[in-house]
Specification:
Length: 255
């Protein structure tokens, strides 16, 4: 089944796709008449469809049935120290694709980068573009960059709050979020704090602890800020989405 993001997936009968949607379907995905499709719009509404015909660059699809709405993003809030150059652009794009819900750029004590004017607009534009590209239901929320202490206050107090720290004594993130871990509601919200190139300062770690954050690690290697942010996001999203999928009825066949 080929997934296509369309303006409105609620129609019935046949639907002529826009030039851009048709281009994606025929040139990028190389779809041919008879192929099964899943149409999804930006409100998360979904329909099973079949590519009926191609007329002069425009694809016409036949809607077969409405499917259950796509789930919203996993409640994963990433507090990430702004890395050097424009590396946060990639973190915004990839954490949106992976399925995080919110990203707060952070200015930590050892941060070397102050985001320039226009950065917030750029990050929000990337989040919008990514939503269209990956078919998520709502855009990743990107906040204004704030100092670390302020970022901690933005964390949902009901979330599992975790500070990424390459300390060999710290428990592993995946272990802490596993269904077996005591004190963590499987599938509940998670907040992840990722430090700058020079790491968190001791007093930042203490402040985070006092706000309910538990230091956790990813592995034995020291990862770059952007790698740590994405690895942690993927682990947290998987820990949330896994239990959610287990509760869903099987998908209709589409046909
Ligand atoms: N020397 C620094 C330190 O010891 O914290 C390394 C900082 S690392 C380049 C940047 C950030 O990525 C860290 O502050 C942490 O949040 C995260 N990070 C990198 N590797 C990690 C690991 N193995 N486990 C947990 N977090 C990690």
């Amino acid at each position: 089944v080929i997934r296509v993001v369309v303006e409105d997936a609620t129609g019935a009968g046949t639907l002529e796709l826009t030039v851009k949607e048709s281009h994606y379907l025929t040139q990028v995905r190389r779809a041919t008449p008879g192929d099964r499709l899943e149409l999804r719009d930006l409100s998360g509404r979904r329909a099973a469809a079949v590519l009926e015909s191609l007329r002069g660059g425009s694809a016409v699809v036949r809607i077969v049935e409405r499917l259950p709405d796509a789930p919203g993003p996993a409640p994963v809030h990433l507090l990430v120290a702004v890395p050097k150059r424009s590396l946060l652009d990639g973190v915004v794009r990839a954490s949106s694709e992976i399925g995080a819900s919110r990203l707060t750029p952070v200015l930590a004590g050892r941060s070397v980068m102050l985001p320039g004017a226009g950065r917030l607009e750029r990050w929000r534009r990337i989040a919008e573009e990514s939503m269209r590209q990956c078919g998520r239901r709502v855009p990743l929320v990107v906040d204004q960059a704030v100092p670390f202490a302020q970022a901690l206050e933005l964390a949902d107090p009901r979330s599992k709050r975790l500070l990424l720290h390459p300390d060999p004594e710290a428990p592993f993130l995946a272990e802490v979020l596993s269904a077996r871990a005591s004190g963590h509601r499987a599938g509940g919200p998670v907040t992840l704090a990722v430090g700058p190139e020079g790491g968190f300062e001791e007093d930042e770690i203490e402040l985070a602890r006092s706000r309910g954050f538990l230091p956790v690690r990813l592995g034995d290697n020291i990862l770059r800020v952007e790698t740590a942010a994405l690895a942690a996001t993927a682990i947290a999203v998987a820990a949330i989405v896994g239990p959610r999928l287990a509760e869903l009825p099987p998908e209709p066949s589409g046909g």
